[in-house]
Design a protein that fits this description.
heterodimer; A: Rossmann fold; Rossmann fold; 5-stranded parallel beta sheet; 4-stranded parallel beta sheet; 13 helices; globular; B: mainly alpha
């Protein structure tokens, strides 16, 4: 009886084993992703997803990588580190994912970093901008985290340098969301100003998702700063700009102002003339690769891409390039391939990771002049 | 201190206070009559704003027609909500009502994300960028309209509750459901009407505020928790108390926001709520009698 059971088990094993082996070499390569698909910044999460999915669709249309299709699984993190830790821990436990993509929010990315380090899976950050992510990566300790977008500190240093030359860096007030993103913004500005013997004249933070900013904007207006550095995104940004306009702010903005999301009526009125902003991207960048991206994105999603979509698209392309060079799509080989990346960016620069696993692409400095957004400079971050 | 700065803060506070009141009154009415805390109230406000957005931007309706249509649709939704879901809670546990409305809130919020995406939308009206300017003081016209609608809604609700037979019936059901039944009042019809009016008010709030704030699936969240604090401060189930507490909180927050860091201002509503619960558990205007 016992030998009969062993024979049956061995037969089943013999039938299944070859198919299991075949599955491992022909199955799709799966990337895990954690991004806010609900919650107060889900609009950005949606664009992160669209950018990533477009890059993957294009790669799969060309036959995939290493003869296999690529897939990406998105888990919602609501921009909440606790949610991200839960979902990324589950993803890593399955050992199905060759890399983890993004997190979007800085607090979330910082929470994911120890998890990927323990699991030995590469984590590639597309959108989170806190300087501490890079400080803790590469020679900073975490060998598995790679950051594609510039840090706040490097971008703001470029912006303040430009403002200082124009004699406008002396009287800046700051309003930002009370998160790692907003705190990194004020810290980056303080550091850049300190190098030039200046400091912020006022700092305040609002709770993300708040709708009414009239009292704090009235206070800022009364203080009459030369510029207001604004670190607001998504609906918060739309509400702030509308209310700033309603109150007749009369003070230009600076910082990471999302100039492409300013309502066209406000932009055309000239109210924001003199506003400066630094961003890693703008859809109007005049390169062939960017034009093709904007066209493909707009055609597929019926919306123009924004910074987040660009960063996600380019980051996934960098990851796909590393998977291709890794030879076997194993997490360790992908990490080594990422470290030796030399990638031609859509911004016409060749980018590679430094000792902190950080890429130094160009930052773009914008100014609003005569109701129009003008690129006034590009600066290496 | 600059007087115009102080007056501007006061004006901002009154407007935001009436906006809070518009949302809190419906919540308070539903609690007063049914003893149900409607956790989905913010989502009905959001859906009102979404409908207003689509009526104006996609279908070309004017502002006032949109206000009327959204309010009527919200009244009907309230009617259906009561008959479809809340009526089944009759005599059941308070916890069950919390779970039911929380679940409904999640379904409505995520349904809105699925159908409308999370992209923030702005309802543009002919006066979206117009302001009333007196010296250094500025108030956007859209906020003034919201203020007027809030005051009108309060007046209408007050009239219904205190000057009509149906209002008297609502107050009767709120005070003692069984006694109201004994004197010939149909509690089910009264409750249905209270829910319809409560949801109608949240729809009206959504339509009135769609030109003021960005419209997106999570917009209800920021107001509804403050509205809970307001109805506790005002006296649970006391509609007039909720309205007065809302204006008081709006003014207090605005004045404090002019001088204190925002993080402290955000805590004001909840610190006030805790203080009221400790010192006067029935609320500032509560007399142990709801509605």
């Amino acid at each position: 009886m016992f030998s009969r059971r062993v024979t049956i088990a061995a037969t089943i094993l013999a039938i299944l084993a070859p198919s299991a082996f075949a599955q491992s070499t022909t199955d799709p390569i799966v990337i895990g992703a954690s991004t806010p698909l609900t919650g107060s910044v889900s609009h950005f999460g949606q664009h992160a997803r669209w950018g990533a999915e477009l890059a993957i669709a294009e790669a799969n249309a060309k036959g995939g990588v290493l003869g296999r299709k690529i897939e990406i699984d998105f888990q919602d993190n609501r921009c909440n580190p606790a949610e991200a830790v839960k979902s990324v821990t589950q993803m890593l436990a399955t050992k199905k994912y060759v890399a983890i993509f993004d997190g979007l929010c800085s607090s979330v990315a910082l929470a994911i970093m120890p998890l990927v380090e323990r699991a030995g899976v590469p984590f590639i950050v597309a959108n989170a901008s806190a300087t501490s992510i890079a400080e803790k990566s590469g020679v900073g300790g975490n060998k598995w985290t790679f950051k594609v977008n510039p840090t706040d500190a490097s971008m703001l240093d470029a912006l303040i340098g430009w403002l200082d030359k124009a004699g406008k860096a002396g009287n800046i007030a700051y309003l930002g969301e009370d998160t790692d993103y907003g705190r990194a913004g004020s810290a980056g500005l303080e550091a850049a100003l300190k190098k030039r013997n200046q400091k912020l004249v006022m700092v305040d933070y609002y709770q993300k998702g708040a709708a009414d900013f009239t009292s704090v904007l009235t206070k800022i207006k009364a203080k009459k700063p030369g510029l207001l550095a604004l670190y607001a995104i998504d609906a918060d940004f739309v509400n702030t700009i509308r209310q700033w306009y309603s109150l007749g702010g009369g003070i230009p903005l600076t910082g990471r102002v999302l100039v492409d999301q300013v309502p066209k009526e406000i932009m055309a009125s000239g109210f924001l003339d003199g506003t400066t902003s630094v961003q890693p991207y703008d859809p109007s960048v005049d390169t062939a690769a960017n034009k093709a991206f904007v066209e493909a994105f707009t055609k597929k999603y019926n919306e123009a891409p924004m910074l987040i979509s660009f960063e996600s698209y380019e980051t996934i392309n960098i990851l796909i390039d590393a998977i291709r060079r890794s030879g076997d799509a194993s997490p360790a080989a992908i990490r080594d391939a990422l470290a030796s990346t030399k990638y031609k960016s859509m911004l016409d620069t060749t980018i590679e990771f430094d000792a902190n696993n950080l890429i130094h692409n160009n930052a773009i400095i914008f100014e609003i002049k005569g109701g129009k957004v003008v690129i006034v400079g590009m600066s290496k971050t | 201190m600059d007087v115009s700065f102080f007056v501007q803060l006061l004006l901002n506070g009154i407007v935001i206070g009436v906006i809070y009141a518009l949302i809190a009154m419906g919540l308070s009415l539903i609690f007063g009559v049914l003893e149900i805390v409607n956790f989905a109230h913010g989502e009905f406000y959001m859906l009102g704003a979404m409908l207003a957005y689509f009526l104006t931007v996609n279908w070309g309706f004017g502002y006032w027609a949109t206000i009327v249509i959204v309010t009527v649709v919200a009244l009907m939704v309230g009617y259906v909500l009561y008959e479809g879901l809340l009526a089944s809670l009759r005599g059941e546990s308070f916890e069950r009502s919390i779970l039911l409305t929380l679940g409904l809130s999640m379904i409505l919020q995520n349904g809105a994300v699925f159908f409308f995406t999370t992209t923030p939308k702005m309802m543009e009206t002919p006066f979206s960028y117009s302001n009333v300017v007196v010296g250094d003081l500025r108030v956007p016209l859209a906020r003034l309209f919201a203020l007027g609608l809030g005051l009108a809604a309060f007046g209408a609700l007050y009239f219904i509750l205190y000057r009509t037979r149906v209002g008297k019936a609502m107050r009767g059901v709120a005070q003692n459901r069984d006694a109201a039944l004994m004197v010939g009042i149909d509690p089910r019809a009264v409750s249905r009407l209270a829910v319809a009016i409560g949801i109608g008010l949240s729809g009206l709030a959504g339509a009135a505020l769609a030109p003021v704030y960005a419209v997106h699936p999570l917009m209800g969240f920021s107001f509804v928790f403050k509205a809970f604090a307001i109805i506790i401060i005002g006296g649970l189930g006391n509609v007039s108390g909720a309205a007065i507490a809302a204006v008081m909180l709006g003014v207090l927050e605005s004045l404090a926001g002019g001088f204190l860091p925002l993080a402290m201002v955000d805590a004001l509503a909840f610190v006030s709520m805790i203080a009221v619960l400790l010192l006067r558990p029935q609320g500032l205007f509560g007399r142990g009698v709801r509605v």
